[in-house]
Amino acid sequence: MSILEQRNRVDELVKLGNPTFENFYPSLYLDVKSPGKASWIIRYQLYGKRRQFKIGSYGTDHEELLNLEGAIKAAIECRKKLNDGIDPKLDIERQKQPKLITFDDCAQKFLEKKRNKIKTTYIYERVYNNEIKSHLGAIRIDRIHSYDIDNVIQRVLDSGRPSVANQVLLFIKRVFKIATKYKLITCNIAQEFSQSEDAGGADKKRQRFLEEHEIEDAFSIFREHQHKIPTASYIALVLLLILGTRKMELLSAKWQQVDLKRQTFKLLDTATKTQASLIVPIPDLAVSLFQDLKLLSGNSEYLFPKRKASKKPHIASDTLNDAVASLFGVAYGKRKPGPNYMANVDVEHFTIHDLRRTFRTLLSKIGTRREVAEKCMNHSLKGVEQTYDCYGFFPERQAALNNLAERLMSLVKYKPLLS
């Protein structure tokens, strides 16, 4: 059958639209489903297994459609690959994979893998976006020099953040590991760097917590700088101190988790680090905070809706971190640091996570039993105790958080919007 006769045959089959699966060239078939709709299928055998895949839809009036001649050319290419022992379907799928060329390409690949495994990927994202991306992101991964890595780490060390320098080094090492895995580079130059010699040294467990006078002074600075700490952020900082939740357990929460009549806030197992849900009692003095949040959030389903264009519907993970850090004269990324306002009241640097340590310390200070305090933290129990002790200590936690709120609300001096 000549090419003209084959072309006419294709047109006839597609026009009729009767379900048909007809061969037009070695390994090439036309699969007709209905009038005007047909696909080109490659069918072949490799290593004793029969396989097939669609190479395109039939048509002549669009560049994405394949006519007979185009389909034959594709079939010839597939036959060449088969002769070389290459699976054409697998080869096409590989070509569709995003190309990994720059450091940013590899970093995004690493972050994508992390998102599928852990819930705290935002920690890695913050380190990358604030400390690394602007310096290494656009450079081809195989063109990055050891000096480039050293310069990025040194910038962070010069800013007085040794623990962040360790995080930067670890991130770069993992990205280079991805590049090595996908054969983009032959030598992992980041592996030669060490935490002790090139970064911030051995990590020390943070012991920082805020004394009560520091809480009072810090929140006075927060009130003075409402352009950096607006009301919603101020409320978030107060709630982190009073409820003791992890930052994103609060900032990503929805209103369906809050029951103001019963005064409860439910932490979902899908949103907690320990994958354990917990009903957190809302202290009497904290009810007004949630009422004001409801007013500020408008019609949003989130307690803290996003404030600018973002992929996430709630406030970004680094919003509070950046705002508090700026008041200490610390700036991340390309931003220039401002004055250290906290120095005016002799408050030493603290982070958002230090508020959770402060919460736990204050629970001990007011005499809360250890098992009750640990449940307030939603920490996992160990061993046999984890299996058999299912008591939630809700009445005890309710009493403890009410006592803590009475102590803290006089220090943070929050004035309800609806008063």
Features:
single chain, 419 residues, alpha+beta, Double Stranded RNA Binding Domain, DNA polymerase, domain 1, hpI Integrase, Chain A, 3 domains, 4-stranded antiparallel sheet, 3-stranded antiparallel sheet, 7 strands, 48% helix
Short recap of the structure:
This protein has 419 residues and is α+β, with helices and mostly antiparallel strands. Helix content is 48%, strand content 10%. It has three domains: 3-96, Double Stranded RNA Binding Domain (2-Layer Sandwich), CATH 3.30.160; 103-198, Tyrosine recombinase, N-terminal domain (DNA polymerase, domain 1, Orthogonal Bundle); 212-412, hpI Integrase, Chain A.
Task: Describe the protein.
With 419 residues, the chain is α+β, with helices and mostly antiparallel strands. It has three domains: 94 residues, Integrase, DNA-binding domain (Double Stranded RNA Binding Domain), CATH 3.30.160; 96 residues, DNA polymerase, domain 1 (Orthogonal Bundle), CATH 1.10.150; 201 residues, hpI Integrase, Chain A, CATH 1.10.443.10. It contains 17 helices and seven strands. It has a four-stranded antiparallel β-sheet with strand order 1-2-3-4. The protein has a three-stranded antiparallel β-sheet with strand order 5-6-7. The termini are far apart.
